[in-house]
Amino acid sequence: QIIKQVPVRFDLKTLHIPTYSAEKLSSMKDMDWNDFLQRVCSLLDSTEKSTGAARSKLNLLYYLSTVAVHKEVASRLISSQLFPVLVQQLRAAANWDIRAKVARVIGLLALHTSELGENVPVSEAIILLTELIRENFRNSKLKQCLLPALGELLYLIASEEEKRKHPRECCVVPLAAYTVLMRCLREGVRLFHC
């Protein structure tokens, strides 16, 4: 069963980047786009551990969730330096709320992207999501946050391989991902996007 969730809202006042609309982001010139991405990545990559820093990252992830539903923006973001930063945050963030929201952004990017760049580390994201689900298998709330992202990435890879008629190196799916997914499905996990 898929449970719908409430719309995401971000706080304009505490967001430390300009809040461009998806339309504005999709039409940005390369220099402005790179400046925007650099600011987003540096905010996400911040190692500050205070409550305010965590809240700031969550707010940024909420903003990214709202613009990631736009196809052109999703395609640009997933093929940019942001995707490896998101994967790193999924791996290293001490706060599980941040990890859950990062997984949501990754899932939304995978769902809405129209084109996957050649060097996007999708396999790394799939391996990490698989490991996190396996390590926290009894934590159903966390599993419900991670599984949709894993499913969207698997679907994206399948779609890309169907388009191209040959698998790519960055899109290798480990057997463990299918095993974890099948185990979750057998147990009847209720899914919702965090």
Question: What's a concise summary of this model?
Answer:
By secondary structure, the chain is mainly alpha-helical.
Distance between the termini: 15 Å
Low-confidence stretches: none
Q: Helical stretch count?
A: 9
Using only CA atoms, what is the Rg? 16 Å
The helix content is 55-70%
Question: What structural class do the secondary elements suggest?
Answer: mainly alpha
- Judging from the principal axes of the Cα atoms, what is the shape? globular
Largest sheet: 2 strands, parallel
- Mean pLDDT equals 83
Q: Per DSSP, what share of the residues sits in E-state strands of 2 or more residues? A: under 5%
Question: Strand sequence of the main sheet, in spatial order?
Answer: 1-2
Secondary-structure element order, N to C: EHHHHHHHHHE
Find the count of extended strands (DSSP E, 2+ residues).
2
